[in-house]
Amino acid sequence: MSTPAASAPRDPDVTRDQIRRFLLDAEALPSPKGAALRLIELARDPEASIDETVRVIQTDPALTGFVLRAANAARFGGIERTLDLKRAVVRAGMQMVRAHALALSMIRDHARPRCTHFNYQMFWTESLYTAVLMDRLAAHFRQFRPGEAFVLGLLAGIGRLAFATAAPDEYGTVLARAAERGVPLQLLEQQAFGFDHHELSAVLLADWGVPTELADVVYWQRDPEGGGFEPDSRPYLLAGVLQLAAGVASTALAPEAGGGGIVYLRAAMLELEEADMAELTSAGLAELREWLQLIGLPPLPKPQG
């Protein structure tokens, strides 16, 4: 098979229809369980109270720790640290709480995909690093609602996990070809399935109750200029920041995957200096190590030297 060229513009409505058919035909998909599922149900109930949310979180000690850490994160600098779970939920925001619950339920899912060339632990490590970088970039640009940047970073790549779960054999072949030929993964995904993991992520997030505006940002993260966003709008900035954070995470954790070019280009477009990027990556890696320990994922290798 020849190396695919860059794909022509596609109709998002047609693409979403293809994704819906894929999801309907899938025998297995990553799905929220336990506390995460209950929190999604509560989000759809206009009568649900914050006390009910707190009670659900308290059933899961790991989720409780996750929420408390989020509420005491650096972006709330100057605010007194809290061990009160209700205050933590209010401070972090329900959107972030649900995202943490979703991620934790999937990380701990023992029915992991049997997909060759899909590294489950590296996927979540990269997702967490993207989330940490998004959080720090949000603090830099100051145009984001609390928690939304972390949520996007944590779940923006969930389509990769969905491909590996729903079509493990076919997706394993796609991953092998991408590694062998140095072809962008999304081009081979489009060739094999008709859509890529960014587009699949957006549809899944919308199904899980993530606001449409944020799902659209995930959909267009590979091409923020193609999403029809107003140049000075918050969604356009979010999409660009997400592209940058995901690119930094990918190149830092898997340098062989390439992609450094888009990182430099997007950083320049966002007017981030070399010193800004150095601080972002080093501080982000330090925070990532703390998250990995909290969740129970394998630690990063120690720096050489």
From TrEMBL:
- Pfam families listed in its UniProt record: HDOD
Please give the superkingdom of this protein's source.
Bacteria
**Residue stretches making up the HDOD domain:** 29-224
Gene3D superfamilies, from UniProt? Answer: Hypothetical protein af1432
UniProt xrefs under InterPro entries: HDOD (IPR013976), RNase_Y/CdgJ (IPR052340)
- Please state the span of the N-terminal signal peptide per the UniProt entry: none
Q: What name does this protein carry?
A: HDOD domain-containing protein
